[in-house]
Amino acid sequence: MDDKKTVMIVEDEADAAELFAEMMRVGGFRVLKYFSSGPAIPAIEHEKPDVVILDVMMPDISGLEVLRYMRRQPDLASIPVIVVSAKSMPMDIKIGLDAGASMYLTKPVGYRDLIQAVDKVLQGSDAPQI
Description:
Elements: E1 6-10, H1 14-26, E2 30-34, H2 37-47, E3 51-54, H3 63-72, E4 81-85, H4 90-98, E5 103-106, H5 111-122
Parallel strand pairs: 1-2, 1-3, 3-4, 4-5
């Protein structure tokens, strides 16, 4: 039986998605990748990953809309979501946290920061973090 935690990455930039995926694999996680929000939503519902790493600016449905949708669904509401976005203005961060992000990181994100963020949200820190 595989007891690896599952991280789902929803990121439209292929290079960034693969970089995040490789960081998570090196960190010992099972990784699922989606390049747009549309297919990611049913995958989140089906897979119920342990953590979602979510970009905000997506080609179809905004990452913030995905996040708000998850927070409205009783069976998805408790899944930690780490927003990783190029949108780095204080108002952007506030909007992401208000939408229900467990943590908000700005691009570029290094290995240590991303692994620490995933570990922290898996430990159940309730307060949203920047």
